[in-house]
Specification:
The chain has about 325 residues and is of the alpha/beta class. Helices cover about 45% and strands about 20% of the residues. A hairpin with a 3-residue loop joins strand 2 and strand 3.
């Protein structure tokens, strides 16, 4: 007899296949079979497990072969490369530390030895002398230029010397401070009970309290009772709201560029007044639409000046559409 040279198929099964066969045999006794979805999932899981195991097996030998194939010369080159990289890192760190050290030395010298103030230039002053300004200025010669508090010096000058409207202080290297002064003039006046005057600038900063005289060009604020008036600070009125009304009246006058204003006053939010040329009182009523009301009132004054330039009276401009004049 001829021997059968066919090899028998590999009947060795995995534990997982044994479990499945056992499950099939149990289900078969009841005439059931595993769901198709279950069988499909098991097949996919086995394929993934097999492919993953095969890829890991393939990867490991490749890495092992790569390490094994390196020659001694290549290993020496790799070690030398690592040493050079470490040297570069150390040199970079040393360079950074050196730069920081030099920067610290420069800063220390700048704050102690270098950039000392030896010149203070003051320009634009007329009301105050250079000596008066220097006496108040909290910046002295010999001090460090960087340590000079220019913002604090500006505030001190504008407060202690009220007629200074703006003090612009700048550093000029290597050792100079420049102070540019802008002075203000009296814009408003309030007559006190003792017939003295409190003088104010256009921001209602007190320039002088209890002045014997007031400039003729200044605008009088009537019906205002002062609570506190400290030179260099904003005036405080007993009626806090009134100051807000007055500021809005002044802003309206400035916006229409009105001339010959001799007085302003406010009684309350609905009663605000402007006196023109010391002879015509304009009653604005409320501050709402004040610009439109004032434009209408000025147009009426122009017509009135053409017919009766010396007229005295009151223009009621509580509405910008209806204006009428009452002569007194």
């Amino acid at each position: 007899m001829k021997k059968d040279n066919k090899q028998k198929p590999n009947t060795k099964r995995t534990p997982r296949e044994d479990d499945l066969r056992s499950l099939d045999s149990q289900l078969g006794s009841f005439g059931l079979e595993p769901p198709k979805v279950y069988r499909r999932q098991e097949q996919q899981r086995q394929q993934q497990t097999g492919s993953r195991g095969q890829s890991q097996q393939n990867r490991r030998p490749a890495n092992a072969n790569r390490n094994a194939q390196r020659t001694p010369q290549e290993k020496v080159k790799q070690q030398n490369k690592k040493r050079r990289l470490k040297k570069k890192v150390r040199r970079a760190l040393y360079a950074v530390m050196l730069i920081l050290l030099v920067a610290l030395i420069i800063v220390a010298l700048s704050l102690t030895v270098l950039f000392k103030i030896d010149t203070i230039n003051i320009t634009g002053n007329e009301k105050y002398t250079t000596q008066q300004i220097t006496a108040v200025l909290p910046i002295d010669k010999g001090k460090n230029l960087f340590m000079a508090d220019t913002k604090g010096a500006k505030e001190k000058l504008e407060t202690n010397l009220p007629y200074i409207y703006n003090a612009e202080i700048k550093r000029k290297f290597p050792s100079t401070i420049n102070v540019a002064i802008t002075e203000t003039k009296t814009v408003y006046r309030i007559k006190n009970a003792d017939n003295s005057y409190t003088l104010l600038d256009d921001r209602f900063k007190v320039l002088e309290d209890s002045a014997a005289k007031a400039p003729s060009h200044s605008i009088e604020i009537k019906n205002a009772k002062i609570k506190t008036a400290v030179a260099g600070t904003t005036v405080e009125l007993k009626d806090k709201k009134m100051l807000g009304y007055l500021k809005r009246i002044c802003n309206t006058i400035a916006s229409v560029n009105m001339k010959k204003v001799t007085a302003i006053y406010s009684k309350d939010i609905n009663n605000n007044y402007i006196v023109y040329d010391n002879r015509i009182t304009i009653k604005l009523g409320s501050i709402d639409k004040a610009e439109d009301k004032l434009y209408s009132a000025l147009a009426a004054i122009d017509r009135l000046d053409k017919t009766n330039p010396a007229a005295h009276g009151e223009i009621v401009a509580t509405s910008d559409k209806q204006i009428y004049f009452t002569e007194k």
